[in-house]
Specification:
There is one protein chain. With 278 residues, the chain is of the alpha/beta class. It is built from ten helices and ten strands. An eight-stranded parallel sheet has the order 3-4-5-6-7-8-9-10. β4, α2 and β5 form a beta-alpha-beta unit. α7 crosses α8.
C-alpha cells in the first residue's frame, strides 16, 4: 500500500496530503463509498454540513474497524450559521450527526462578504470551539487574500488551512503565496477541474510518457506543489487510481508545463461576490 505523506499544520497537527472527498455523493451512498476509500488506504475524509452526508462518513469510519484517531475527518460550517451562537450549535450538530466526540478540522465554508454577519464573528466562534479541543484544527475555505489578511489581523488564531479551488486552469499562485506567507496550508478542491483538464494535450502527453492516467498526473502535480487534495469518485477503480500517486515523480519541466496552463478559469463561485445561504 502506498504511504501517503503528511503535512504539518501551523498548530503541529499532521494531515494526510491525499484524502477522499464526498462532495455530491448522495447520502445513501456515502457510507459504502467512504468505506471503500478507507479499505483502499485513504485516512483523510473531507465532508461538509452543506453536503448532507456527514452521517454516512461517521458510519463508514465506525464500520471500517479503524481507530477514530487513525482517520482525519474535516467538515465545514454551512452558510446559514455564521452568527456566533449559530456556528457553535451547528458544530455540535455535526459532531452528533457524525457520531464523533471531535473533528480533526472544521472550516468556515465561504466568507460570504455581503451578509450582515461578519466572518470575523464566525471565526471567533470557531476559536472557542478549538480551545475546547472538540476541533483539533480550524480553518477557512474559499477565502481570498483580503479576507485572510483581515481575519489574521483581527483575531487570535491563524487558520490552519485555506481550502480553495485549484487546478491547472486556476493555479492560484498568488493566493497560495499569501497562504504560505502566513503559515496557512492550501487545500485544493476540484483538483482535476471536474475532468475539464484531462483531455489537455500537455497533460495527456505527460501521462503517456509516465505510463499513468491524466488524472494521476494532475493529482501528482498538486502533491509536488504541496497542495492537500481529496479527489472524489464513487467508482472503486477510480478511488484506487487516485490513490496510486506515489511511485512516480514529475520533472521540474513537466511541473512548469502544467502550471503554465493556468488561465484563471474558475468553475465555482467567485468568493468575493458569493453570498448564497441555503
Amino acid at each position: 500500500m502506498s504511504t501517503v505523506p503528511t503535512i504539518a499544520l501551523n498548530n503541529g497537527v499532521s494531515i494526510p496530503q491525499l484524502g477522499f472527498g464526498v462532495y455530491q455523493i448522495p447520502p445513501e451512498e456515502t457510507k459504502e463509498t467512504t468505506l471503500a476509500a478507507l479499505e483502499v488506504g485513504y485516512r483523510h475524509i473531507d465532508t461538509a454540513q452543506m453536503y448532507g452526508n456527514e452521517q454516512g462518513v461517521g458510519e463508514a469510519v465506525r464500520a471500517s474497524g479503524l481507530d477514530r484517531s487513525d482517520v482525519f475527518v474535516t467538515s465545514k460550517l454551512n452558510n446559514g450559521f455564521h452568527a456566533h451562537d449559530d456556528a457553535i450549535k451547528a458544530f455540535d450538530t455535526s459532531l452528533e450527526t457524525l457520531g464523533f466526540d471531535h473533528l480533526d478540522l472544521f472550516l468556515i465554508h465561504w466568507p460570504l462578504p455581503g451578509i450582515d454577519v461578519d466572518f470575523v464573528e464566525t471565526w471567533q466562534a470557531l476559536e472557542e470551539i478549538y480551545r475546547t479541543g472538540r476541533a483539533k484544527s480550524i480553518g477557512v475555505s474559499n477565502f481570498q487574500p483580503s479576507h485572510l489578511r483581515r481575519l489574521i489581523q483581527e483575531t487570535q488564531i491563524v487558520p490552519a488551512v485555506n481550502q480553495i479551488e485549484v487546478h491547472p486552469y486556476l493555479a492560484q499562485e498568488d493566493l497560495r503565496a499569501v497562504d504560505a506567507e502566513h503559515g496557512v496550508a492550501t487545500e485544493a478542491w476540484s483538483p482535476i477541474a471536474q475532468g475539464l483538464v484531462l483531455d489537455n494535450p500537455t497533460i495527456t502527453g505527460i501521462a503517456s510518457e509516465q505510463g499513468k492516467t491524466a488524472a494521476q498526473v494532475v493529482l501528482r502535480w498538486h502533491i509536488q506543489r504541496g497542495d492537500i487534495v481529496f479527489p472524489k469518485s464513487v467508482t472503486r477503480s477510480r478511488i484506487e487510481e487516485n490513490f496510486d500517486l506515489f511511485d512516480f515523480e514529475l520533472s521540474d519541466g513537466d511541473m512548469g508545463l502544467i502550471t503554465a496552463l493556468d488561465k484563471g478559469q474558475r468553475l465555482g463561485p467567485d468568493p468575493d461576490t458569493f453570498n448564497y445561504i441555503p
